[in-house]
């Protein structure tokens, strides 16, 4: 029985797609290091009940020593009027993360009003802003 219990955390990590290195949201008094080059590589838009689900695929470099969860305030989508568009979150689904001291390709999902999705949008990753086209 002890042998089976030793493998349980490893099996759970593989099944859920988690790594042993926990994602750490950026919430400290010191600002995180600015992201290296950020590039939006794909944008998919899905109309859903008067809103638009935006799936933004991007590459970014996390120069910090900690893994950063792809959630606000580390990763944000800003509308033309400067308002932050909320992240889309599905139950049972984990936020992806930017690996520490590495360039990573990832995806962030946002739930925008139709009026916001039609205007200019900017993706902000660790303080580096790029336009979303």
Describe the protein.
By secondary structure, the protein is mostly beta strands. About 15% of the residues lie in helices and about 40% in strands. It has two helices and nine strands; from the N terminus they run H-E-E-E-E-E-E-E-H-E-E. A hairpin with a 5-residue loop joins strand 4 (about 75-80) and strand 5 (about 85). Mean pLDDT is about 80; it is low at about 1-30.
Q: Which key terms come to mind for this protein?
A:
mainly beta, 2 helices, 133 residues
Brief account:
The protein has 133 residues and is mainly β. The chain is 14% helix and 41% strand.
Given as residue ranges, the uncertain stretches (5+ residues, pLDDT < 50) are: 1-29
Helix content: 10-25%
Shape: globular
Structural class: mainly beta
How many individual helices? 2
- Average pLDDT taken over every residue: 79
Tell me the fraction of residues in β-strands, as a range: 35-45%
Largest sheet features: 4 strands, antiparallel
Straight-line distance between termini: 55 Å
Strand order of the largest sheet: 5-4-8-9
**Could you give the order of the helices and strands?**
HEEEEEEEHEE
Number of strands: 9
- Spatial extent as radius of gyration: 17 Å
SSE blueprint and pairings:
Layout: H1 2-16, E1 39-48, E2 51-62, E3 68-69, E4 75-78, E5 84-85, E6 97-98, E7 102-113, H2 114-117, E8 121-125, E9 128-132
Antiparallel strand pairs: 1-2, 2-7, 3-6, 4-5, 4-8, 8-9
